[in-house]
Every structure is written in structure tokens, then in C-alpha cells.
Amino acid sequence: xxxxxxxxxxxxxxxxxxxxxxxxxxxxxxxxxxxxxxxxxxxxxxxxxxxxxxxxxxxxxxxxxxxxxxxxxxxxxxxxxxxxxxxxxxxxxxxxxxxxxxxxxxxxxxxxxxxxxxxxxxxxxxxxxxxxxxxxxxxxxxxxxxxxxxxxxxxxxxxxxxxxxxxxxxxxxxxxxxxxxxxxxxxxxxxxxxxxxxxxxxxxxxxxxxxxxxxxxxxxxxxxxxxxxxxxxxxxxxxxxxxxxxxxxxxxxxxxxxxxxxxxxxxxxxxxxxxxxxxxxxxxxxxxxxxxxxxxxxxxxxxxxxxxxxxxxxxxxxxxxxxxxxxxxxxxxxxxxxxxxxxxxxxxxxxxxxxxxxxxxxxxxxxxxxxxxxxxxxxxxxxxxxxxxxxxxxxxxxxxxxxxxxxxxxxxxxxxxxxxxxxxx
Length: 425
Description:
- The chain has a 5-stranded parallel β-sheet.
- By secondary structure, it is an alpha/beta fold.
- Strand 6 and strand 7 (179-182) form a beta hairpin.
- The protein contains 19 helices and 14 strands.
- Helix content is 48%, strand content 12%.
């Protein structure tokens, strides 16, 4: 770094590619000094030892890009091309020294750390996806902690846990007799971050109201005559496929696009097995008064498991082992028995179960939609019937007579319905 600084002062390069681990001054420490010589010229940081702390420091110190080694020529060539095309590289101040909560040395998790750092530096809506127990809320907290809103509140809302009878008032607040009875969770997030966990469970009527609040920057309390201005950044999380729910009509497409400006997908633990020993030792170290260590056999057993409950299940297993062993060596027999797949995984493996769940969700939404009152049965059939008719026509080579016989319809009725839905005969 010292030699690079001398060269930068002499020739003012158009681009700097900077490694993190260097003899003497490290790359991240040198970035601010390089910036004085480079002006707005881009800095590309490269490292083989990426973690969340490194990613955050690199981005907030003004790195144009954060590239993990090993990389191929096409990747670095594309990074250089984008750097030269950039008109100006904005500077970020106050680098964060420490980051807690997320651990991982695998490339999959280092990529997540990079995305978290990028999300923290931009005040946009973020959708965090991943299976139950992967650490979606931890990621959301990390984004908030290293964002420009870190001094503001971080308000967590578990949508699935909201009381359906009072969900609107809990979220948007309530006014009675001109007095604020309940401020509402959206109002409490003013100046900070609102984290909506299990956002896929949000009822359609509240989806409409949330979209309006996000677009207008104001919240309309229940019973209130005037909206209340508010300013918060929204981060949402789900273990479901929101796009599938959009296609099924169970989630508004406009709200989906509004919430997913930047998406972070956290991989399940079974896809980053090399992180398991690191996490296991970390969880063990968190327990006060514990001197237990893992045998190689115990670590091998931990690494071999599927961990359907992901990091949450792993932490629970380590706590169990520490209770059993108290001190000394942790052996495979000190670990609890592996848990079976979660019910959601079993359900997702069954197409019939998945179809039934989607149908129930759509039926519930229609029944709760005031505009559909009196037409729920008709609208429900109109949404499902075209798929059945199209499948029948495809199966019988678009011949109406055999398709009508299989469906139990008169041929004239089938033709009328095909015309109604615009299905090619």
C-alpha cells in the first residue's frame, strides 16, 4: 500500500484495484489515503478473505466494487468496464469497525455479506428471502445498523403474529374522538427502518394500505381524518415464493415490485456446509463458563446433517450438547437426534398440497375483499376454470368433442367457455 500511495501521488491513475491483505498497511486502511490522490477515480477491492465486516468497510469507504477471489478474467474485465463507465463514485463516510450477528467463510455467504453492504449504502426497499432459520432478521438488522438510518428505530413486525381483528390499527395506528389511541408500528418506524417479517401473510386489504403509505410517505390511522407524514425504510422477509403468490392473486403485483427493489437470498445451511464448524464454535463460545471443545467426529456429524431448521436448529443443537457435556470434549453422542423436514418442506414437495394451499389463500382473500362481495364464487371459478379448460384442450389435441366428454360438458357449452376466456380451439 505504501508503494501504491507513492505511485498514485505521481501518476493519478484512472482506476485502482486494491487487495485487502497487504504487508504493512492493509488495503482497507489505505483506501482513505488513496482517495486523496485519486479524486473520484474508482477503487475496486479484491479479497480472498471476505466477511460481512470487510464488505461493509469496503463499500462504506467508497469502493466501486467488491470482488471475491478467485475470480475469472471475464468477471474482473466486466468490473473494470463498469468502473470506467461510471461518471462519478460517491464517497461514504464513517466506516464501521465491527459487525456482529452473521458468520460465514463460504463464497455463498461472502456474496450475501457483499449484498448486505450494498443494501446498507442505498436507501431502497429490500426483500430478504430464504428458508426458516437462515437469519433473515439478522441480515435486516445488519442492513439497518450500517445504513444512514442507524440512529433511528428498528421496528420489527411479525405479520403472521398480528391479531387479524386489530392488525390495521396495530400497523397504521388508531384515532378516536380526535385523540391518538395507538400510534401504529409504521409511525413508530419514522426516521428508521420497518422490518416486516413473513410479509407473504399480509392480507390483501392491508397490502393496499401499505402500498399507499409507501408511495405517499404518509400513514392513515384507523378513524383518523388526516394522514400522518412518515419516513421509514422498509425491509421485508419471507420464506415463501412471493412471485408465485402474485401469480395466484394472493399478493399484489404492484406491492411486490415496490418491496423488491433489492433482493437478498440467504442460502440454507446445507448449501454452505463449510460454515458449520465456524458457527458451531461461535455458538459454543457464546455460553458463559463453557470450556467444551468439539471433536473432529462431532464436527463431521454436524457437517453431515441436513439442518432443515438451518442456523436456528444448529444453535439449538449446540446448546443441547453443552448442557449434556458441561465441560470437556463434545462427542457425536452429545448431539440431539436430527429433526425431520419441516412441515412447509413436506408440503412444498406435494403438488396437491401446494395447490390446495394456494386455493385456500385465494379463497380467503376473495372472501375478505369488499369489492368481491356477492361474486366470490363466480370470481373464484373464473380464475381456476381457464387452466382446466386449456389442459383438457391440450390433452385432446384441441378437439372439442373428446375434451367435452372428459370434462362432462356439452360441446356447445365448452365452445362458449373457450370463447369467453379467449382460449384457442
